[in-house]
Design brief:
- This is Sugar fermentation stimulation protein homolog.
- Belongs to the SfsA family.
- One of its GO terms (molecular function) is DNA binding.
- With 230 residues, the chain is α/β, with parallel strands linked by helices.
- The chain has helices spanning 83-93, 151-165, 192-203; strands at 8-16, 20-25, 30-34, 50-55, 65-72, 75-78, 105-112, 115-122, 127-135, 137-139, 142-145, 169-176, 183-186, 207-215, 220-225, 227-228.
- The chain has two domains: 8-78, OB fold (Dihydrolipoamide Acetyltransferase, E2P) (Beta Barrel); 83-228, Trna Endonuclease, Chain: A, domain 1.
- The strands form three sheets. It has a six-stranded mixed β-sheet. A five-stranded mixed β-barrel has the order 1-2-3-5-4. Strands 10-11-13-16 form a four-stranded mixed β-sheet.
Length: 230
């Protein structure tokens, strides 16, 4: 996935009200950027760190920039939570994720029961519902999800179990937007209920794909599937 337009470099002054961040551009101008990440952003929030912003396509939008990434420990961490969905659609459509390739049709935002999943993929032999989650939390050498309690995420796991019961593939695709981790795990200390439901879902046949990607000012590229540990 490539960014549509050149990104703008700056330095993080502070994040506030969850969805806003003050950024000092290299020119010295201070701008307010939209932060799509509604979580705590624990382990990827450091005042004074380098950041990159994307200019808003809509000239009438109140915030003229979207915060895309931050440099932590010498590497870029993607914090735009809308990018993983776009990236996942691109990668599954192009057959670039081992185990999630070979689909002839891939659609976004498809409803099953009372849930709406990020991707629906099919070919002549199978149907597959895929829920995509952004992962930015690091704890030791592990990437973890979630970084805040997510009742919506718990509901998705429950519905994926129903998908599997009806004979279709059910997949949790975790897009890990940092490369300084070695494996993936549920954040039990933050949301123990989600962690329990993920284990139940996996036992029921829901598949887990923790995909590490490399974020740069040019774009986002897939790197490898990490092991999931519990």
């Amino acid at each position: 996935m490539k960014f549509d337009r050149p990104l703008v470099h700056g330095t993080l002054i502070k994040r506030y009200k969850r969805f806003l961040a003050d950024i000092m551009l290299d020119s010295g101008e201070v701008v307010v950027a939209h932060c799509t990440n509604s979580g705590t952003m624990k382990s990827c929030l450091e005042e004074g760190a380098e950041v990159y912003l994307s200019p808003a396509a809509d000239p009438n939008r109140k915030t003229k920039f979207t915060w895309e990434m931050i440099k932590i420990n010498g590497g870029w961490v993607g914090i735009n939570t809308s990018n993983p969905n776009q990236l996942a659609h691109e990668l599954v459509s192009q057959g670039q994720i081992p185990g999630l390739d070979g689909y002839t049709e891939v659609r976004r935002e498809v409803t099953f029961g009372d849930s709406r999943f990020d991707l629906y993929a099919r070919n002549a032999s199978e149907e597959c519902f895929i829920e995509v989650k952004n992962v930015s939390l690091k704890d030791g050498n592990l990437a973890k999800f979630p970084d805040a309690v997510t009742t919506r995420g718990q509901k998705h796991l429950e519905t994926l179990i129903e998908v599997k019961k009806q004979g279709m593939r059910a997949v949790m695709l975790y897009i890990i937007q940092r490369t300084d981790v070695e494996a993936f795990a549920p954040a039990k200390a933050i949301d123990p209920e989600y962690a329990k439901k993920l284990e139940v879902a996996m036992a029921a046949g829901v598949e887990v794909f923790p995909l590490m990607v490399e974020v740069s000012p040019i774009g986002i590229e897939p790197r490898q599937i990490l092991q999931a540990v519990f």
